[in-house]
Amino acid sequence: MNHRTMDATREQLIKQLVFFDEQYSLFFDHYVRDYGKEKQTVDTLIKRYRDTLEDILAKDDGALSESLQSVALLGSSVHVRFEEDGYEELFTVVFPTDIDPDQNRISFLSPIGRQLLLSAPHESIVLESPAGRQSVQIGEVRFAYRGGFPSTKEGL
């Protein structure tokens, strides 16, 4: 990646951190309906995500560029191979405001999105969805965030 692209990428990741620092409670109240187990699950996921972003942002440009292909972030495309039948699919994990089922852009709050966020290439996971459990192998991960995210209460 060239220097300008790295600066834009770094800026996008910083915006995500700022969003979760400043707007998390509004975001949470809007998107999370269950304040029991789901709250705990989402809180834990967001904490892990924020910690990961902070670690990545502390790196120099070369290491940051490598990290963008070694862990699925918000804005990452994740190549998934279903182990049962070998079927392959590409999902992009995004904020709920950027979902597009026709383009396989899935919310990180969806059952599959929660499991793909922070996944790594060559990792085997069991995706749990309303359709059942399926073993998958994570392939290539590539960060290429093109969307936005709500920055004000009106954006929620």
TrEMBL record:
Signal peptide: none annotated. The keyword S-adenosyl-L-methionine does not apply. GO terms for biological process: regulation of DNA-templated transcription elongation. Gene3D superfamilies: Transcription elongation factor, GreA/GreB, C-terminal domain. It comes from the Bacteria. Keywords: Elongation factor, Protein biosynthesis. The keyword Protein biosynthesis applies. Residues 71-142 form the Transcription elongation factor GreA/GreB C-terminal domain. InterPro entries: GreA/GreB_C_sf, Tscrpt_elong_fac_GreA/B_C. It holds the Pfam family GreA_GreB. GO terms for molecular function: DNA binding; translation elongation factor activity. This is Transcription elongation factor GreA. The lineage of its organism: Bacteria, Bacillati, Bacillota, Bacilli, Bacillales.
